[in-house]
Amino acid sequence: MLLVTVRLAPQATLEQAMRRLKLLEKDVDTGYGLVLIDPGEDLYGLRVSEAAARRIDPSAGGGPYADPPIEPYGPPD
Q1: pLDDT: which is higher, 42 or 74
Q2: SS3 sequence, 27-77?
């Protein structure tokens, strides 16, 4: 999965983002959902499949951006 961004109206929903980016439910990580990244810019992020990221019109959304797993560094305490 990759991260993409989209500008939407305040208090937007995942469904609105999917419509704006022309995505289907199978293209999106619905468990991750829609995350508000920058409230001042109404910028949201969501995770999509690599195939879906390639189909997104650049004028509708930004990215794709890598989404590497976050893991602890070093041995556990």
Answers
A1: 42
A2: HECCCCCCEEEEHHHCEEEEEECHHHHHHCCCCCEEEEECCCCCCCCCCCC
Lowest average pLDDT, out of 18-22, 29-33, 46-50, 61-65, goes to 61-65
Q: Cβ contacts of residue 13 below 8 Å, gap of 6+?
A: 34
* Burial track 19-35 (b if 16+ CB lie within 10 A, e otherwise): ebbebeeebbeeeeebe
Q: Are residues 47 and 32 in contact, defined by beta-carbon separation less than 8 angstroms?
A: yes
Nearest CA among 62, 49, 39, 41 for reference residue 1: 49
- In 3D space, the residue among 9, 23, 17 whose CA is nearest the CA of residue 45 turns out to be 17
Element (H, E) at 3: strand 2-7
